[in-house]
Design goal:
The chain is mainly α. 76% of the residues lie in helices and 1% in strands. The chain is built from 15 helices and two strands. The protein has a two-stranded antiparallel ribbon with strand order 1-2. A hairpin with a 2-residue loop joins β1 and β2. α5 packs antiparallel against α8, α8 crosses α9 and α12 runs antiparallel to α13. The two termini are 17 Å apart.
């Protein structure tokens, strides 16, 4: 039986409620429009995956404390800021099944809201004198921007190799998950070895998480986002990269040319999906995803055994088995 997210949250159920209070306080504003938008952000929040990881990473090594809440709040502020900005860049009008900020309040306000959330994330660290966390998360946000720009650059040429793909997803997805684990851990742990283990665990989990996102884009399940969005956007995901590598060169060349010139064409999209299936892009991507999940589990096995560690182990399987 699959583990639910509520089961994973159970060791820190009370702490997550306290985190909500910290987060609401952090994004409140005297500007009525901003406060209204902040209320909407809280109301439409998603799985809160990153603060969950931060708090569980803290509890592996000791009781959750004020520094742990600071880590979780910073992570969620910075992550939310990047989502708001991403929706503007992608011209997306939905997020988690709700209207995006830019759809309701237009791009200019959305960009300013994203800037506000980003600055609040940095200010929380400064106010609490959490300079190590500030450095870790600032580096993560910088890497995320570089990853997005590298992906946009490569999308124009559709020439991403597996190595470049993994560089991109490490930067744009895995670094923030890794930072969440690291910041959570340093709030309760003094061991450099354990902290480095949590950093590596988060990186491997983040890579598995992004590969699963790639696979869900090709899935028949309702993922809450447009079907085959990545092909439409000319994003080179792992299933496509693997299929291109496995297929005869003439067929790979033809698919690349079709996507490059007609990525919005439904016939081209269907052919691309069939191409990925035919040349084992999905099955081999699942294998790679599970390899990174198993690396994350191997890291966890070296940590103190308790309910929080068990929840992180369950989270590894949740990440690779989720349908949305």
């Amino acid at each position: 039986m699959k583990t639910s997210l509520n089961q994973i949250k159970s060791p820190i159920e009370n702490e997550l409620k306290l985190f909500d209070t910290h987060f609401k306080k952090a994004i409140s504003s005297r500007v009525s429009l901003l406060d209204k938008i902040s209320y909407y952000i809280v109301k439409t929040k998603g799985k809160q995956f990153r603060p969950l990881i931060a708090l569980l990473s803290a509890k592996v090594f000791g009781p959750i404390n004020e520094e742990s809440y600071t880590a979780a709040t910073m992570v969620e502020l910075l992550h939310t800021a990047t989502l708001v900005h991403d929706d503007v860049v992608d011209e997306s009008d939905q997020r988690r099944g709700f209207f995006s900020i830019n759809a309701l309040w237009k791009n200019k306000i959305a960009v300013l809201v994203g800037d506000y959330l980003l600055s609040k994330g940095l200010l929380v660290a400064l106010e609490k004198e959490q300079y190590a966390m500030l450095k870790i998360l600032s580096e993560a946000v910088s890497a995320m921007s570089e990853g997005e720009l590298l992906q946009l650059e490569k999308a124009r040429r559709l020439d991403i190799t597996e190595d470049i793909y993994f560089d991109i997803i490490k930067q744009k997805t895995a670094t923030l998950i890794s930072a969440s684990c690291t910041c959570g851990a340093i709030s309760t742990c003094q061991s450099e070895e354990y902290i480095l283990t949590m950093k590596r665990f988060g990186l491997n989990l983040g890579i598995a998480y992004q590969i699963k996102d790639d696979l869900m884009d090709l899935s028949e399940h309702n993922t809450g986002k447009p079907k085959i969005h990545d092909i439409r956007e000319k994003k080179m995901t792992l299933p496509l990269i693997i299929a291109l590598k496995n297929a005869p060169h003439p067929e790979s060349f033809q698919i690349i040319q079709s996507i490059r010139n007609h990525s919005e064409d439904e016939t081209v999209i269907r052919k691309a999906v069939q191409f990925i299936i035919q040349y084992n892009g999905i099955n081999q991507s699942i294998d790679r995803m599970n390899e990174y999940r198993d690396l994350a589990l191997k890291d966890l096995a070296t940590l103190p055994s308790n309910d929080a560690r068990l929840a992180l182990e369950q989270l590894c399987y949740f990440v690779t088995e989720r349908e949305k």
